[in-house]
Design brief:
Elements (H helix, E strand, L loop, with lengths): L21 H14 L5 E3 L2 E5 L15 E5 L8 E4 L2 E6 L12 E3 L17 H4 L7 H10 L1
Antiparallel strand pairs: 1-2, 2-5, 3-4, 3-6
């Protein structure tokens, strides 16, 4: 058989997906996620999958409830609540260009938070996000 990732010929079938080694298996795993970006949630460089099967005994994270807000992709702006979120692993650096963060963990208490730094959206908490510093704030107050 010929490995679909590296093209190397091999005889021992390790997996059922035509790859020759663990390294090629891992690469294939992440390439599959690149080809189906809307099926996966990436938060802080960690890939997750939301299983839509609600009638199951086995649930991701033991059935813990998560609220996820999409910040990129076709689901941008949507909020999803799930009790069946599955960990898929940390996205390797070589794939981070294609598999960028597309969501954040979200709660109602955080609805006013800055999307960039995730702190409550006040001057003091997200001044770094807006290139604003304490001295500039003081200058603005003096002009008024």
């Amino acid at each position: 058989m010929i490995c679909k990732i590296c093209g190397k010929e091999y005889t021992n079938e390790l997996y059922y997906i035509n790859v020759c080694s663990d390294k090629c298996y891992d690469k294939n795993y992440w390439l599959e996620r690149i080809n189906k970006p809307d099926e996966f949630v990436i938060i802080d460089g960690i890939c997750y999958h939301i299983d839509k099967n609600v009638f199951t005994v086995f649930k991701g994270f033991g059935g813990r409830r998560f609220t996820i807000k999409f910040i990129d992709g076709i689901h941008k702006g949507e909020t999803v609540v799930t009790d069946n979120l599955w960990y898929n692993g940390k996205v390797p650096e070589e794939f981070r260009i294609k598999l960028k963060d597309n969501a954040i963990f979200y709660s109602e208490e955080e609805k006013n938070n800055c999307v960039t730094c995730r702190y409550y959206n006040t001057y003091f908490d997200c001044s770094q996000c807006y290139g604003f510093d304490e001295w500039e704030r003081g200058e603005l107050n003096e002009e008024i």
